[in-house]
Each structure stands twice: as structure tokens, then as C-alpha cells.
Design goal:
eight-stranded mixed sheet; 278 residues; alpha/beta; globular; 42% helix; 14% strand
């Protein structure tokens, strides 16, 4: 399969071909049928990586799959999940695969590795330079949402972007969830994108309007005071929990030490050795 788009401006023109773009997060909060009813059949529905978290049947509407890269290539390629994931997208309304990288250390996979579907690349590492906390990496959904909101005139709608852990799916610590939610809510309230489940106004801002004699700095300082108190109470509870589970933690570390290294860990080690010898 030939290479699809590879430059940001090409992707911008492609997305501009749709009036409405709906980004579907891998969240328990997503109801696919309800989302299609809300946004219609003319919208482009964008899914991310492990779509089996939200799809249990083939998706019959306009769809694009975002496959996030890692140091060893696209995650779904490395994990050999391409066929299992692409079976959710019938060819007639499936646009293709957008292989996304948001960090200089993330490597693209070849277009031929995506099961015969057309696949392109979008490199956003430079876009997020100094725009995202350096200790973390942006999630794929956040990265595409912000980039679309700033660089295109499309209606961008977010479904399931709750940043809440569920009983089934965890949140990965290499993303800054607080920063992402702050940014997305600001963009939503400014009208740059639409975010399901978010209140249209900030209650703290309304508090200042209701009581104009109380300054904004006092409201912020008091909010931080309450937040610090709750964080301290949470820290005490977590410390107590660690004390109660110390034995289980030791057993877990022992069992993890016995596990052989994964293919990904071995590949990253080989790549780092190659960089040092270069």
C-alpha cells in the first residue's frame, strides 16, 4: 500500500473536507450509537489505537484510525494487533490510518505494515515542544484535538474525554491528565472545540461575579488551600494503604524480577546501544 499523507499541511486539508470531526476516546463513558445519533453520518469519527475498548461490532460510518507510535514503531504494529483492530472498520467508509508521533523518540511504522489499508504519518513533536509538561507525553486524543482546534476550521467534538480511571481500563502515568483536562476545558469554554459532559461555565468564575467584593486572587488562594488540605488527607490515607500492603508489594516486585524482558524492552535496549555506538 502506498504512503498516504506525511505533512501537517496535507492532513489539515484532509480534515478541512469534513465540517464536523468527532474524536472518540477509549472510555467507558462513550456510547457509540448515541454519538452517531448526535453527530450524524456526515461526520468523520476518529478512533485511537485499541478500539475494542469502545467497539463491539464493525463501525459503519466514516472513520479514521489513529495509531500512536513508540520507540519501536506504531503500538498496534508492534503488538501485532493490526488485523484484530482493522476488522472493526469495513473498507467502504474507512479512510485509513494516521500514524501519530508526539515525541522525537517515537518511530513511524511503514505504510505496508497496516494490513493493506492506506496509512499516513503526522509528526507533532515540534508542535508540542514547550507546550506540554516536559516530564510527560501528550495522549493521542489530546494531541489531535488541540492541533485540530488550532490549525483547522472544523467543528471538533470530543466524546469520552473524561480522564477517569474505570474498573476495566487504567490511566497511564506517562501522561499529564490534569494539564490535559485544564487545556481542553479552556478550549471548550472558549468555543474552540466541543466537549461532551463539561459544564458550560466555571463555577469559580461565577463565584466572583456573584460576590464582586471578593477578589479573584482570594478565591484562587482559598481554592488552593482547600485543595492542599484534601491532598494532605489523601496522602495520609495512601501512606496507610502502603503500610497495609507492604508484604504484597515485596511479593509483586519479586515476581516481576522473575519475568523475562519483553520484545519492546529488548528492542529499545538495542536501539539505545546503536545510538551510543554511532
Amino acid at each position: 500500500m502506498a504512503q498516504w499523507f506525511a505533512r501537517p499541511d496535507e492532513w489539515q486539508r484532509y480534515f478541512e473536507g469534513y465540517r464536523r470531526i468527532v474524536l472518540i476516546a477509549n472510555s467507558d463513558a462513550v456510547e457509540i450509537a448515541a454519538a452517531v445519533r448526535r453527530h450524524g453520518r456526515d461526520a468523520l469519527y476518529v478512533f485511537f489505537n485499541k478500539v475494542y475498548k469502545v467497539l463491539d461490532a464493525p463501525f459503519a460510518e466514516n472513520a479514521l484510525l489513529v495509531a500512536r507510535s513508540s520507540p519501536v514503531g506504531a503500538n498496534i504494529v508492534y503488538r501485532r494487533e493490526v488485523a484484530d483492530i482493522l476488522r472493526f472498520f469495513p473498507p467502504d467508509r474507512f479512510a485509513g490510518v494516521l500514524n501519530l508521533a508526539c515525541d522525537d523518540g517515537e518511530r513511524f511504522s511503514g505504510a505496508e505494515e497496516f494490513g493493506g489499508r492506506r496509512a499516513g504519518q503526522l509528526q507533532l513533536a515540534a508542535y508540542f515542544d514547550r507546550f506540554y509538561p516536559l516530564s510527560h507525553k501528550p495522549t493521542s486524543g489530546f494531541a489531535l484535538a488541540v492541533w485540530l482546534a488550532e490549525t483547522t476550521s472544523c467543528e471538533v467534538h470530543l466524546e469520552g474525554f473524561t480522564a477517569k480511571r474505570s474498573l476495566q481500563w487504567k490511566l497511564f502515568a506517562d501522561h499529564d491528565w490534569i494539564y490535559e483536562q485544564t487545556c481542553l476545558r479552556l478550549l471548550a469554554r472558549s468555543g474552540r472545540l466541543q466537549m461532551a459532559g463539561i459544564e458550560p461555565v466555571n463555577a469559580y468564575a461565577e463565584l466572583g461575579r456573584r460576590f464582586p467584593d471578593i477578589s479573584g486572587s482570594d478565591i484562587a488562594a482559598t481554592g488552593l488551600e482547600v485543595l492542599a488540605s484534601r491532598a494532605e488527607n489523601t496522602s495520609v490515607a495512601i501512606e496507610r494503604l502502603f503500610s497495609l500492603t507492604r508484604l504484597q508489594g515485596r511479593l509483586d516486585r519479586f515476581l516481576r524480577d522473575l519475568k523475562p524482558r519483553t520484545r519492546k524492552e529488548k528492542a529499545i535496549e538495542r536501539a539505545s546501544k546503536g545510538d551510543r555506538s554511532a
